[in-house]
């Protein structure tokens, strides 16, 4: 089994989730006694491409065609499928990011490959090939067994971790032909806040709910998040009321996340909220109601008024950081 | 006097909305048969919440006789109440592909086969079904039909020829324009979910619901077992007056900061 990993770039740079996907793909390649090839599409500098060697990619296919500068899943899927054929790769790994979710299914259909999206663990090779993935929006896991010759895995961010495993990396230019019909969708504009930590990738998350009473009280939430280097999130009623943007809404009908630390402030812990956050590694709950259901899944709890508790935590954090 | 007649382009849009039948969001998920099957006992099924958003946007785009909305579900006869709910919300007609939705590959193939034989301007899905597939069906339909697919959208405008779509990306959004047929998977923001009114509920009973048989396709994999998350240990309570102790615990005990 030869392994190919797709390394997604944003503005020519790789994010942590990419190094994580490479680390994961490398672990699979090692297990199967094969080497790992990465494929990058868009304009990434040679030095950044070579850095992928640090995580185990020994060959990097670089597709730098100008018309592929922006992500168009239809064209990117064709390129990845071509690369897989050229490399004889029958396992393709990518990140289960927003773009990955639109890309992996197309690659899978092109290669007639079974697809596991939202993988959270290394595959199990005992008597076959199966992978554990999240299901029921985080309320359960499903072990999916793939029987097809080709396979695609979309790895959840923060599920495997970044592992260094340095190898010599060579960069090879690759210019497959692009069908014009693959470029029907045209990217007109990209708006990205570069100063903010993106929620799906965040290792630390500070989240707040209706207990905060109104959008004017989010200052302390943002301050705590920025001191921690955390992303901010919120419950559904908060984004429904436009106190915060929809992109911060976590839960069953929002984003599902599994950061190392999730701090929930003034959130009751409804089943739909918990679905999206309960696989966080450490959960802290701050709520004035000792009966709030969220305490049942918390590791640390503070029963108290957020408006008194949070400033104390901020002060302690400032002291801790010196 | 010279009367200038505006050039009216006659548009009759046809939109296909894919709906999945999923357990109500309050469902406590459990499994039977040695954890190989989802336990449906006592479970209430609903239209997947994101599909309600997709359907609502489709209805808005077709308002005022500008087009018709067909809903499609791949499912066995037990899903018909969910399909009727979609008709009550305002779809014009419905199709049920008579088969258990084995996986996303199977489901997307059935929908693509139906769409091939019927000329739709756009196909709308939900961002993901809240059971177990996970954001696969829309892009797979796009691939089977060899047309663009835009995943996780939060805005959709259509001027009769070109769709302008906002898609979610990490830390922001991307604006995409598509001319011609496409598939999109809708998330929050695309529309407010509509609630059926009495007239809708009454008329849903008589709207056409066609049943078609599934087309065979190879199986590439399947779910062999389910697991529920391991229970967490007891919560460690920190008195509010010593809230500052949290930082020390997160640093030296939990080792996350
Ligand atoms: C179909 C469907 C899908 C849904 N999907 C989601 C989802 O994806 N995500 C989601 O979050 N919700 C979702 N919900 C909504 C969910 O059921 C809850 O209504 C919601 O999570 C409650 O948000 P909340 O905890 O912020 O508000 P509330 O339930 O109002 O809780 C506020 C909490 O703040 C506490 N509080 C009040 N004042 C203070 C104070 N001064 N200091 C400290 N604590 C205080 C209160 O004790 C209370 O526990 C969904 C609902 C439905 C029907
Ligand atoms: N059985 C089904 N029948 C019709 N549409 C479906 C079915 N399953 C999924 N879909 C559609 O595909 C979307 C994404 O589902 P999934 O890929 O399963 O997460 C859903 O929101 C629906 O719009």
From TrEMBL, chain A:
GO biological process terms held by the UniProt record: fatty acid beta-oxidation using acyl-CoA dehydrogenase
Domain Electron transfer flavoprotein alpha/beta-subunit N-terminal residues, every copy: 3-190
InterPro entries on file: DHS-like_NAD/FAD-binding_dom, ETF_a/b_N, ETF_a/FixB, ETF_asu_C, Rossmann-like_a/b/a_fold
Keyword presence, Transport: yes
A GO molecular-function descriptor: flavin adenine dinucleotide binding
Residue sites binding FAD per the record: 210, 266-273, 287
Cofactor field: FAD
Cofactor note as given: Binds 1 FAD per dimer.
Pfam families in the cross-refs: ETF, ETF_alpha
SMART domains: ETF
Source superkingdom: Bacteria
Family per record: Belongs to the ETF alpha-subunit/FixB family.
Protein name listed in UniProt: Electron transfer flavoprotein subunit alpha/FixB family protein
């Amino acid at each position: 089994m030869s392994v190919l990993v797709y390394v997604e770039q944003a503005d020519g740079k790789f994010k942590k989730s990419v190094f994580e996907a490479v680390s994961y793909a490398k672990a699979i390649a090692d297990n199967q006694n094969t080497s790992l090839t990465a494929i990058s599409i868009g304009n990434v500098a040679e030095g950044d491409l070579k850095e992928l060697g640090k995580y185990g990619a020994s060959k990097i296919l670089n597709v730098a065609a100008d018309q592929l500068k922006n992500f168009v899943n239809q064209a990117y899927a064709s390129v990845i499928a071509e690369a897989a054929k050229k490399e004889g790769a029958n396992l393709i790994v990518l990140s289960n990011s927003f773009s990955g979710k639109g890309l992996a299914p197309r690659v899978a259909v092109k290669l007639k490959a079974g697809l596991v999206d939202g993988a959270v663990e290394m595959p199990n090779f005992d008597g076959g090939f199966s992978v554990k993935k999240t299901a029921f929006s985080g309320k359960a896991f499903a072990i999916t067994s793939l029987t097809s010759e080709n396979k695609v895995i979309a790895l959840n961010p923060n599920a495997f971790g970044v592992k260094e495993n340095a190898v010599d990396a060579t960069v090879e230019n690759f210019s497959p032909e692009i069908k014009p019909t693959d470029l029907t969708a045209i990217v007109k504009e990209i708006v990205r806040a570069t100063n903010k930590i993106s929620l799906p990738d965040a290792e630390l998350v500070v989240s707040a709910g209706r207990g905060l009473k109104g959008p004017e009280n989010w200052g302390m939430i943002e301050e705590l998040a920025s001191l921690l280097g955390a992303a901010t999130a919120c419950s559904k009623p908060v984004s429904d009321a436009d106190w915060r943007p929809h992109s911060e809404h976590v839960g069953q009908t929002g984003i599902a996340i599994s950061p190392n630390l999730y701090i929930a402030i003034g959130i009751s812990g409804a089943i739909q909220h918990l679905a999206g956050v309960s696989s966080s590694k450490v959960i802290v709950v701050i709520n004035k109601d000792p009966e709030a259901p969220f305490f049942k899944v918390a590791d640390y709890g503070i029963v108290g008024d957020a408006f008194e508790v949070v400033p104390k935590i901020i002060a302690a954090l400032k002291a801790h950081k010196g | 006097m010279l009367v200038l007649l505006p050039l009216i382009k006659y548009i009759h849009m046809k939109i296909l909305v894919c709906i999945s039948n999923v357990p109500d969001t309050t469902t406590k998920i459990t499994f039977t048969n040695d954890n190989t099957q989802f336990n449906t006992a006592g479970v209430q099924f609903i239209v997947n919440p994101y599909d309600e958003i997709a359907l609502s946007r489709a209805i808005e785009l077709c308002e005022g006789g500008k087009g018709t909305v067909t809903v499609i579900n791949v499912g066995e006869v037990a899903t018909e109440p969910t399909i009727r709910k979609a008709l009550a919300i305002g779809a014009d007609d419905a199709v049920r592909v008579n088969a258990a939705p084995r996986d996303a590959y199977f489901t997307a193939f059935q929908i693509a086969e139906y769409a091939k034989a019927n000329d739709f301007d756009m196909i709308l899905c939900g961002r993901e079904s809240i059971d177990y597939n996970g954001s696969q069906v829309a892009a797979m339909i796009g691939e089977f039909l060899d047309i663009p697919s835009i995943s996780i959208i939060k805005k959709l405008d259509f001027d009769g020829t070109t769709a302008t779509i906002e898609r979610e990306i990490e830390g922001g959004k991307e604006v995409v324009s598509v001319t011609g047929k496409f598939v999109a998977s809708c998330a929050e923001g695309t529309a407010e979910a509509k609630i059926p009114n009495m007239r809708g509920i009454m008329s849903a009973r008589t709207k056409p619901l066609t049943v078609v048989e599934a087309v065979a396709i190879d199986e590439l994999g399947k779910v062999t077992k389910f697991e529920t998350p391991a229970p967490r240990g007891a919560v460690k309570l920190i008195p509010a007056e010593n809230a500052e102790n949290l930082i020390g615990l997160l640093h030296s005990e939990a080792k996350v900061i």
